[in-house]
Design goal:
This protein is an alpha+beta fold. About 30% of the residues lie in helices and about 20% in strands. It is built from 7 helices and 10 strands. The strands form 2 sheets. It has a 5-stranded antiparallel sheet, with no helix packed on it. The chain has a 5-stranded antiparallel sheet with strand order 2-3-4-5-8. The longest helix has 19 residues, at about 145-160.
């Protein structure tokens, strides 16, 4: 393999959980981090006994489908072709439920990912995963997530002014409840040409030409990660330390790390997180 892997990690937000929505893929052709979108619906997957074991969330099942698709994806494929290939795998996985998903976008299989093509020496990003290339940080931030994070922050602050405590809100996040209808409606903007549009693999038509491509020079150090790391550092230990510091300062994620969700009581973090660091040869 024309890379040297230094360290890698997948940590679910709930320690011991088997339903992590993040995924990590490594073979002789590709290195990829997948982030299944947190489910906003009620359907569990797969729908038939012949599928993967257990009742998965849509984000978890999307991750499993994409991990399988990456194992068969042609090594010489380009970035746009890869997004079409992966998106088609999701379309096949949800074919029997397509009529339901057309009317209920909150139930769709959705994921974003970032991957390194070893043969092309390119990083391909579709959605809001992130990377460091030679220490330079790259990430696409969804405008609609930034807006709803601000709205949730505003609502939580009104709750605190009304007498609620941060401890009670960690058990019952009314800020998340307040924006949940908009989080479901935001799915209407998936892969749309709009100020609030955003790119996501979901088994429905996408703009594969909008894949972000970064050319990687030889002998570069790369870090690929999901957005479970709000501050991405050059090492896993440093990234974990920065995350823990933010969790201590702002566990509800409404001040220094404004987000559409905070730390749920009993969880290790506010989101699943995946990290891999490697050198290209």
């Amino acid at each position: 393999m024309a890379v040297h892997i230094i360290e890698q990690s997948i940590i679910p937000k709930h320690i011991g959980s088997s339903l992590c929505e993040d995924g990590l893929f490594v073979n002789e052709n590709f290195i990829a981090v997948i982030d299944g979108v947190t489910s906003k619906g009620n359907l569990t997957w797969p729908e038939s006994p012949g599928g993967c074991p257990g009742n998965m969330t849509s984000g978890c099942y999307a991750k499993e489908v994409l991990l399988d698709a990456l194992s068969t994806m042609p090594s010489g494929i380009d970035g746009a072709g890869a997004m079409d290939y992966l998106n088609e795998s999701l379309a096949r996985a949800c074919r029997s439920r397509r009529s339901i998903l057309e009317d209920r976008p909150e139930e769709r299989l959705q994921a974003v990912l970032i991957l390194y093509s070893i043969s092309r020496r390119e990083v391909w990003a579709f959605g809001d995963c992130q990377c460091l290339i030679g220490g330079l940080h790259h990430q696409q931030v969804k405008a609609i997530d930034s807006l709803l994070s601000q709205v949730r922050s505003l609502y939580i602050q009104t709750e605190l002014l009304s007498g609620r405590t941060e401890a009670s809100l960690s058990s019952h996040d009314t800020g998340r409840e307040y924006i949940l209808p908009l989080l479901r409606r935001q799915l209407l903007f998936a892969n749309e040409d709009s100020d609030y549009g955003y790119d996501v693999l979901n088994g429905f038509p996408i703009h594969s030409n909008r894949v972000i491509i970064h050319t990687v020079p030889p002998h570069s150090r790369l870090v690929l990660a999901s957005d479970g790391y709000p501050v991405l550092k050059e090492t896993l230990a440093e990234s974990e330390a920065a995350l823990k510091e933010l969790i201590q300062k702002d566990p509800l994620c409404f001040r220094e790390n404004k987000s559409t969700k905070g730390l749920v009581k009993g969880n290790d973090s506010f989101d699943d997180r995946t990290y891999i660091r490697f050198d290209t040869l």
